[in-house]
């Protein structure tokens, strides 16, 4: 743990890239640097543990829902924009996600009605 000495890697850098670290999406050399920092820095270790627990909870509770393809595409496009440093358009992503989810549910319900009806009696 840190004894008040400065770290080789700044806490802000670790926290800015925490999800890349958690998701194993960074080069091995960077991972090793982050592991050393997290082992030495109790505030970063605490944040890492919290985010790791949240990811596990979300996976357990929401990991079985199908994500509409258009929503996945929009999210991935936004992530790519952020990673490239480009300006991200001002859009309400939450509202878009809810609208996409509602549309998917409506389509599923319409499909269920088409196949789930009882035949007409003669």
From TrEMBL:
<dbReference type="InterPro" id="IPR024020">
    <property type="entry name" value="Anit_sigma_mycothiol_RsrA"/>
</dbReference>
<dbReference type="Pfam" id="PF13490">
    <property type="entry name" value="zf-HC2"/>
</dbReference>
<dbReference type="InterPro" id="IPR027383">
    <property type="entry name" value="Znf_put"/>
</dbReference>
<feature type="domain" description="Putative zinc-finger">
    <location>
        <begin position="11"/>
        <end position="44"/>
    </location>
</feature>
<protein>
    <submittedName>
        <fullName>Anti-sigma factor RsrA</fullName>
    </submittedName>
</protein>
């Amino acid at each position: 743990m840190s004894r008040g000495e400065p770290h080789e890697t700044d806490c802000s850098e670790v926290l800015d890239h925490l999800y890349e670290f958690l998701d194993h999406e960074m080069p091995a050399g960077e991972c090793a640097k982050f592991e050393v920092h997290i082992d030495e820095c109790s505030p970063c270790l605490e944040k890492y543990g919290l985010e790791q627990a949240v990811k596990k909870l979300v996976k357990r509770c929401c990991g079985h829902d199908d994500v509409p393809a258009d929503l996945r595409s929009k999210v991935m496009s936004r992530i790519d924009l952020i990673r490239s440093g480009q300006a991200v358009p001002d859009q309400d992503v939450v509202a878009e996600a809810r609208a996409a989810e509602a549309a998917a549910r409506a389509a599923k319900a319409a499909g269920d009605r088409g196949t789930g009806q009882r035949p007409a009696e003669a």
